[in-house]
Amino acid sequence: MTRGKQKIEAQKKNAEKNQKGKGSQLEARAVGLKVICPICKAQLANHNQLVDHYSSKHPKENPPSNSE
């Protein structure tokens, strides 16, 4: 019967461990997105991603200069 007790304790421990990581990461994501495309308002992490975004989504436009 000792294994039954260990099993229940292990299940409780795993349930607590798995509960801690859950939750919304919207705030953390918003902090990382610092550059906004002036045309479509897409949020990007840095200027290099903005240049790539312009080349794929707005090929006829020129990306703004790096003003960081």
UniProtKB/TrEMBL annotation:
Residue ranges of domain C2H2-type in the record: 37-58
Subcellular location per the Swiss-Prot or TrEMBL entry: Cytoplasm; Nucleus
Membrane spanning stretches: none
Keyword field contains Signal: no
Gene Ontology, cellular component aspect: cytoplasm; nucleus
Cross-referenced Gene3D superfamilies: At2g23090-like (4.10.1050.10)
InterPro entries: MBS1/2-like (IPR045230), SERF-like_N (IPR007513), ZNF706/At2g23090_sf (IPR026939), Znf_C2H2_type (IPR013087)
Keywords: Cytoplasm, Nucleus
Region described as Disordered: 1-26
Pfam families assigned to the protein according to its UniProt record, in alphabetical order: SERF-like_N, zf-met
Skewed-composition ranges (Basic and acidic residues): 1-19
Keyword Mitochondrion found: no
Protein name per UniProt: C2H2-type domain-containing protein
Organism of derivation: Penstemon smallii
